[in-house]
């Protein structure tokens, strides 16, 4: 059981954002991340690291629950884990300064002021200390052409839309990102699918929806990753 104080709510963003709203959101997240970075040295120690996440997933796959839920798929999961570790190591991402990231920036999880400044945030299920890149995927969904949807999937394509490029450019103006961080975007997405869909999905979604997302992970999400993400497009949007 969790006890908490009521959270005030100001303005909720519309289901589909206009270009000016997308840019304002990019600047707000950049300021928020910069503020989070300044807090890192005074926060308590944490245990949820990227390597710990992969180790826990590997152990879970050997347990009855993991064996039962993903029989016939374990080799694919292990391949994705190997790709994540190899690519993360090559980028040096394990050494990046971790900051508080919430990952699930669903449009229904935060409110803004009339001036489009962050006002309040709730739903901390996926909170962790990690790279700021982990917050980008859900903002690509918020900025997408389709906008907020009741029926959803976790496809990769929102990261390639003009809305996210606009968002990222506005973010970069306030709190510059590096080429290596952009190259880590698909790995952060891979980590998200492995942990919050493949492993923990049944804790966060109803069984029918958890099964749907798990199935799509193997038929759509991982194959999309295999095709690659056009990081050059994102770099060009940021002038890198």
Descriptive notes:
The protein has 240 residues and is mainly alpha-helical. It has a single domain (19-238), classed as Alpha-Beta Complex (Aminoglycoside 3'-phosphotransferase, Chain: A, domain 2). The chain contains ten helices and four strands, in the order ααααββββαααααα. It has helices at residues 19-39, 50-62, 64-69, 74-91, 136-142, 162-174, 179-199, 201-204, 207-227, 231-238, and strands at 99-101, 110-112, 118-121, 128-130. The strands form two sheets. It has a two-stranded antiparallel ribbon. A two-stranded antiparallel sheet has the order 2-3. A hairpin with a 5-residue loop joins strand 2 and strand 3 (118-121). Helix 1 packs across helix 6 (162-174). The longest helix has 21 residues, at 19-39. The radius of gyration is 18 Å and the shape is globular. The termini are far apart. 30% of the residues are buried. The mean pLDDT is 90.
Summarize the structure.
The protein is mainly alpha-helical.
* Strand order, largest beta sheet: 1-4
How would you sum up the major sheet?
2 strands, antiparallel
Low-confidence segments, given as residue ranges, are none
CATH homologous superfamily annotation: Aminoglycoside phosphotransferase (APH), C-terminal lobe
Give the rounded overall mean pLDDT: 90
**What would you call the structural class?**
mainly alpha
Beta-strand fraction estimate: 5-15%
Rg calc: 18 Å
Number of domains: 1
Number of helices: 10
């Amino acid at each position: 059981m969790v006890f908490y104080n009521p959270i005030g709510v100001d303005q909720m963003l519309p289901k589909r954002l206009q270009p000016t709203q997308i840019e304002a959101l990019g600047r707000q997240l950049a300021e928020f991340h910069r503020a989070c970075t300044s807090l890192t040295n005074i926060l308590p120690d944490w245990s949820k690291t990227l390597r710990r996440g992969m180790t826990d997933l590997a152990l879970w796959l050997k347990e009855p629950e993991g064996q039962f839920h993903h029989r016939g798929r374990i080799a694919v999961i292990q391949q994705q884990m190997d790709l994540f570790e190899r690519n993360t190591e090559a980028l040096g991402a394990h050494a990046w300064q971790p900051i508080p990231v919430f990952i699930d920036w669903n449009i229904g999880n935060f409110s803004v002021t009339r001036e489009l400044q962050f006002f309040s945030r709730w739903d901390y299920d996926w909170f962790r200390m990690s790279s700021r890149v982990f917050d980008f995927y859900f903002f690509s969904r918020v900025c997408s052409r389709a906008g907020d949807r009741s029926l959803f999937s976790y496809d990769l394509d929102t990261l390639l839309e003009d809305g996210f490029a606009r968002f990222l450019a506005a973010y970069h103006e306030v709190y510059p990102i590096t080429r290596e961080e952009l190259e880590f975007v698909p790995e952060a997405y891979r980590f998200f699918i492995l942990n919050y869909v493949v492993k923990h999905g049944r804790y966060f979604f109803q069984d029918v929806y958890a099964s749907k997302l798990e199935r799509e992970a193997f038929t759509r999400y991982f194959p999309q990753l295999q095709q690659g993400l056009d990081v050059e497009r994102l770099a060009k949007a940021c002038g890198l």
